[in-house]
Recover the amino acids of this structure.
């Protein structure tokens, strides 16, 4: 262990020995509720976002609702940790809960008429208030883990840290379900209002049962350090987020400027921290091998953990066909494994008195889980995906409680707050940076794999289908191909085939009878998507009443023109009509063969017209049948080609996404290996055990 930067504060209270167990459990319940609020808010809101953007008309700010929350949350974590060391956990935690609840209430009120055009409209109000939520949530996350070290002796901490890890897993299951229910059955505003009763209960428990939990430190707040860490973290997170989302190119002046500002703030921060008597992040902590290597390991675990969740959800949507709404609950097997790993490892560590072996075993298991996920393909069964998810969860589970326990054991009690929050800060930064890097790999990989798979599908087809698929492949390679919606569940082959069955049925009715309802169906994008351009043109030009009616109308016009010419008695007019190349050749010959004398007599003209009418009537039915048959045959050929193109496109996209996400998990194996090596460098500290027969006399302190 490292030598502390400051001596033990005078009058420091060892709450782990002075509070009775029942009081500890009541405090723990309130803290768990507060932490549950923070964890739940990250999953419950995503389900309601489509409805929110629709009602508040703010699709352009969609991603900012999450970004604003993560920015303030991540940047303030180390600041709250230090403040809780200086002023006590209780006041900082209560301030965090109050700010979080205020932000929740305001989020629910976003877009209400009485707020008017505040901040520019309802969606921007939501973004601002989500940032306020993040300000409060940072205190909930950073202080809650430190409270475990205040309340419980080292031998007991791992099992309770495991409960905190389980809270995050539980929230990822409850959040999407509760968010979907409230959005559909009540209102999206209750996605935020639901925090209020839970938060008030947590406040009541903390206010009535929790002592101040002060470290005893008496020092000035490093406000300059706090400001600099914000200037370092916020631009860095913004640059990574905007770059990964494609809002700006990685080499754009905006992104490079943000990176430059962040780097300058980091250098200044290190200088300031090395000179301040009570820095926000004491640099002496990095002389502690447990803290230094543990921070690196947690950074890597953060990248691997969030990447596993995000890209596994994407795989479930794009390849397994799970709906975007259900994707969160589809990862329940991963959550179950995570909860078992978190709670189980905590219990075992408390009994063994060692944590490092369990951390190494967990990382090896996570590495196996990533390897198993790297073998996923477009045809993997859902049951095999479940097995992989459980394996990964079991491996990542121990990371949640044991690294926090290790950091807390490696520092002095009055450094627990800053050490705990710093470890969490590194993990959250790892999540953000890892997500940005993996997101860039995903974007590049999907484009490359899509072009390859469309070309492969083109090679296995012929004619128009092959030409169309190859054109799509070429467009993707040139950067002009269709991007698609990664959050939208693609059609299954069965759905595509059912769509084309409906299309053929309506196409037949439209061509044969001109059914208006059938014609309207043919004009809908969802039915003609993927069809060759020629086929789409045919569908939009089907005549009213069908092809037969159009043919008959043409015959009627021809008959009227012939009758007018014959009744005029002018042979020149008859020859002019006969020169129309669209008339049957036999009819043209007959008209050209009419002698001028026959046109002079009304009786002769009527006799001629009677024969012409009879011939046209006989030819009309035959021509209508032939035209209908030809039009239907040509249209159905286009539909068949369209079905082949849609099926081939779906298969190409499915294989491309599966291959790309599998490659990301291969990179995740490297991340898990780096975390393993960093953990291997950590000292194998023993968890201090309670002496046999030792029992501290409980006393209620500062309540």
């Amino acid at each position: 262990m490292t030598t502390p930067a400051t001596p033990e504060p005078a009058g420091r209270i060892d709450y782990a020995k002075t509070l009775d167990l029942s009081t500890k459990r009541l405090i723990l319940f309130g803290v768990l509720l507060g932490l549950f609020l923070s964890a739940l808010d990250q999953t419950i809101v995503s389900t309601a976002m489509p409805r929110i953007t629709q009602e508040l008309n703010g699709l352009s700010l969609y991603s900012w609702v999450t970004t604003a929350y993560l920015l303030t949350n991540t940047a303030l974590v180390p600041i709250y940790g230090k403040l809780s060391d200086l002023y006590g956990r209780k006041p900082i935690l209560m301030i965090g809960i109050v700010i979080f609840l205020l932000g929740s209430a305001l989020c629910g009120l976003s877009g209400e008429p009485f707020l008017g055009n505040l901040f520019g409209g309802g969606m921007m109000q939501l973004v601002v208030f989500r940032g306020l939520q993040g300000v409060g949530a940072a205190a909930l996350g950073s202080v809650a883990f430190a409270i475990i070290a205040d309340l419980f002796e080292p031998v007991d901490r791992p099992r309770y840290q495991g409960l905190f890890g389980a809270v995050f897993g539980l929230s990822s299951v409850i959040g999407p379900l509760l968010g979907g229910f409230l959005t559909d059955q009540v209102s999206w505003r209750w996605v935020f209002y639901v925090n209020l009763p839970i938060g008030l209960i947590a406040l009541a428990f903390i206010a009535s049962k929790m002592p101040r939990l002060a470290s005893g430190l008496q020092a000035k707040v490093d406000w300059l350090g706090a400001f600099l860490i914000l200037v370092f973290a916020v631009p860095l997170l913004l640059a990574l987020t905007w770059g990964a989302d494609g809002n700006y190119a990685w080499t754009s002046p905006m992104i490079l400027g943000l990176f430059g500002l962040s780097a300058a703030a980091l250098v200044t921060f290190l200088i300031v921290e090395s000179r301040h008597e009570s820095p926000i992040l004491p640099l002496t902590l990095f002389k502690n091998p447990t803290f230094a290597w543990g921070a690196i390991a947690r950074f890597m675990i953060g990248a691997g953990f969030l990447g596993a969740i995000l890209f596994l959800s994407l795989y479930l949507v794009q390849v397994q066909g799970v709906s975007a709404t259900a994707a969160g609950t589809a990862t329940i097997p991963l959550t179950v494994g995570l909860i078992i790993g978190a709670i189980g490892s905590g219990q075992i560590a408390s009994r063994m008195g060692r944590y490092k072996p369990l951390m190494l075993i967990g990382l090896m298991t996570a590495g196996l889980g990533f390897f198993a996920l790297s073998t996923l393909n477009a045809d993997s069964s859902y049951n095999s995906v479940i097995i992989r998810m459980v394996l990964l969860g079991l491996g990542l589970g121990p990371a949640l409680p044991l690294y926090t326990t290790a950091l807390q054991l490696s520092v002095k009690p009055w450094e627990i707050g800053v050490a705990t929050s710093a470890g969490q800060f590194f993990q959250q930064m790892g999540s953000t940076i890892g997500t940005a890097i993996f997101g860039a790999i995903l974007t590049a990989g999907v484009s490359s794999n899509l072009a390859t798979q469309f070309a492969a599908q083109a090679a296995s087809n012929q004619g128009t289908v092959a030409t169309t698929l190859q054109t799509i492949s070429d467009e993707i390679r040139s950067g002009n191909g269709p991007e698609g919606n990664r959050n939208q569940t693609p059609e299954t082959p069965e759905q595509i085939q059912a769509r084309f069955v409906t299309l053929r049925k309506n196409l037949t009715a439209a061509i044969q009878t001109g059914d208006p309802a059938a014609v309207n169906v043919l004009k809908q994008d969802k039915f003609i998507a993927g069809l060759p351009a020629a086929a789409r043109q045919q569908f939009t030009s089907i005549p009213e009443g069908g092809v037969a009616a159009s043919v008959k109308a043409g015959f009627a016009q021809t008959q009227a023109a012939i009758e007018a010419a014959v009744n005029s008695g002018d042979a020149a007019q008859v020859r002019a009509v006969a020169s129309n190349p669209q008339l049957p050749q036999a009819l043209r010959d007959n008209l050209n063969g009419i002698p001028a004398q026959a046109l002079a007599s009304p009786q002769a003209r009527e006799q001629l017209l009677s024969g012409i009418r009879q011939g046209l009537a006989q030819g009309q039915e035959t021509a209508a049948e032939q035209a209908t048959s030809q039009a239907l045959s040509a249209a159905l050929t286009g539909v068949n080609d369209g079905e082949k193109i849609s099926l081939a496109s779906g298969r190409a996209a499915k294989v491309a996404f599966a291959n790309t996400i599998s490659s990301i998990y291969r990179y995740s194996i490297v991340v898990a290996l780096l975390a393993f090596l960093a953990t291997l460098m950590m000292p194998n500290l023993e968890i201090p055990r309670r002496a046999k027969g030792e029992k501290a006399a409980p006393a209620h302190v500062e309540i």
